[in-house]
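INFO batch 0412 | record 1 of 1 | parsing
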Amino acid sequence: MKTYETSTGGLRLTSCTYGLSRLSFRGPRRPTDGPFVACLGGSDTFARYVPKPYPDLIETAIGEVCVNFGCQAAGPDVYLNDPAMRTLRRDAAATVLQIPGAANLSNAFYRVHPRRNDRFVAPTNKLKMLFPEVDFAEISFTGHLISRLNAVDEARFALVRTALQNTWLHRMIELVEDATGPVLLLWFASRTPADEGAMQPHMEPVFVTADMVEALRDHVDDIIEVVHKRGTLEGMSFAPLDTLAAGDALGVDAHMAAAKALRTPLMHALS
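INFO prediction complete | emitting tokens
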């Protein structure tokens, strides 16, 4: 286990690892040798600029250890590719899984970094053939990739988007069915699942629709929907250069709303 501190202006974060996992999580490190709730998710679960993210608030509210396993820009591949995380997921008394976007995962068209899923590693031959005019050497992140492909040709990109959505669904089912305890899906975003913005490359969770979420219902114990606007900086802590990044994140009020929405379903799941 490793622990180290980073500064984000007024907020000093302690990062840590668990067991043999190569992933870095937000600290302080919580005990996993007894009952605990595993909170999996992306940047808004990690909550870089929020002093007390929803896993901390839930722990206080229900009196059970809640471990923040949020990873920056995580897709389902982060948790499926790390053997230590598989063990931790199976040990959890219950799991809260923030619904990730569908762009940050390896698929038939491109590969992503196994731990930093927002990092574009390489296109497959299938993508090269579909978009021969694109220079993929200029692209480092999935967000840039999908925006570029969509701008080049929306019709061709629709094929990529459909593949991403289908791959996402298969990976999410694999992820939730690997847990031994109850699983609660958390929709934690600034739009609803039914919002037409789901088809836009910049709307988180990217390309995830209401039908995709509903397709997971039979595989999980509950689906909790928390919709909150971004850009509310009150109570957040960040350096001046991080103002824009903080504005893109869900803030303190959103985390309070998530904790409130999760409290009763989690207590029922643990009873």
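INFO post-check: Residues 1-8 have pLDDT under 50 and may be disordered.
INFO record closed
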